[in-house]
Structure formats: C-alpha cells, structure tokens
Amino acid sequence: MAIFLHALLIFLIFVGVDWSDNPKKNVASVDVINASLVDTKNLVNSELAKQKAAKEKARKKAEAEKRAKQKAAKEKARKKAEAEKRARTEAAIRERELKAQFEAEVDSSERTQLMALIAEKVERNWRQPPGSDGLTCLIEVRLSTNGSVLLVNVVKSSGVSSFDRSVEAAVYRSDPLPTPDSPRLKAEFRKLTFKFDPNE
Fold it and tell me: Contact 141/104 with Cβ under 8 angstroms?
C-alpha cells in the first residue's frame, strides 16, 4: 500500500494537480492561438482599409482630373466662341465702315456733279442785267421730290437788287432742277444753298 501511495504521489507530481480551491486551467496555448488569429484578422482588416482608402483616393483624383479637364475644355470653348464672336463683330464693323466710306464717296461725287449741273442750268437761264459784272450772291432753293422749284430766297445779297432778282428769276426758269438718284441725297436736295457766280 505504501508503494501504491508513493506511486500515486509521483504521478500527481508529474501530472500536476492544483490543490487550491480555484484550480487554474492551462489555457496559455489557446490564448496564443487566439491572439495570433486576432493579429492576423487585424492585419487583414488594416490592409483592406488601406486598399479601400487608396482606391477612394485614386477615384477622387480621377474625378478631380476629369472635372479639371472638363472645366478647361469649357473655358477653351468659351474663349474660342468669344474670339469668334469678337472677330465677327469686328468684321461687321469694318464692313459697315467700308460701306459707309464707299457710300460717302459716291454721295460726294454725285453731290458735286448735281451742284455743277444745277449751277450750269441756272446760268443758262440767267439774263444778265446791266452793270452786274463781277457780282455774286448766295441762293437758297426749296425743291419738291421731283425737282420742281417751290421757293427761292437770296440768303446773301450781291448788294445790287436787280442782280439778285435776275438770279431768282433764273432759278424759277430752270424748273425742274436735276435731282439725285441716291435715296440718301434726296432729303438733302429738298433744300439747297449755293453760290451763284457767273464769273467762275
């Protein structure tokens, strides 16, 4: 019996028995495995989070670049449209200026010709009174649209009434006076002022 007890004691020493009221479980290896699993899971989650953050950052960067390109394209298109509009406006202004200049030159030429024709017609119908050599006067004539003489006034007298009256009579005898073809000059030629100088 002593041998049996002795053998049991040796067995209990080797196996290890906790004689306290709250025996402790041997869980060290389980804790290590659990800690290893938790570390691995945390590592995987951390890596996934990094990848997700990197993808989100790349997506935001791509969107920002896309928006920047769209904005640049819109700005470029806007500037191009403005430049084209400005070019069209400038071309239209140049064209109007050239047209106005051409019309002014045509009107000036026609005005000069008409005034010469009117002066020539009035001189042909003028009966020179005696003692009127070297005299001139300024005449205002009102015309109808077809060139009929409506009214003649001496604006600046020659100082000799017989000469002034002879010029007025010559204008009436010249009825109708030549009228312009240009519609731009028609209104201008409803009222004329010209110098009558038979000596020119």
Answer: no
pLDDT tens, position by position, 19-53: 555 555 554 555 555 556 566 778 778 888 888 88
Q: What would the pLDDT profile of 150-197 be if each residue is shown by its tens digit?
A: 999 999 999 999 999 999 999 999 989 998 888 888 888 889 898 988
Q: Which of 170, 83, 178 is nearest to 129 (CA)?
A: 170
SS (H, E, C) 121-190: HHHHCCCCCCCCCCCCEEEEEEECCCCCEEEEEEEECCCCHHHHHHHHHHHHHCCCCCCCCCHHHHCHHH
pTM beyond 0.85: no
Instruction: Extract the tokens encoding 99.
Output: 């047209």
CATH number of the CATH domain containing 96: 3.30.1150.10
Q: Is residue 153 part of a domain?
A: yes
Q: What is the domain count for the chain?
A: 1
For 192, the domain range is: 32-200
What does the CA dihedral 46, 49, 54, 58 come to, rounded to 10 degrees?
Answer: 180
Residue 167 forms part of a structural domain: yes
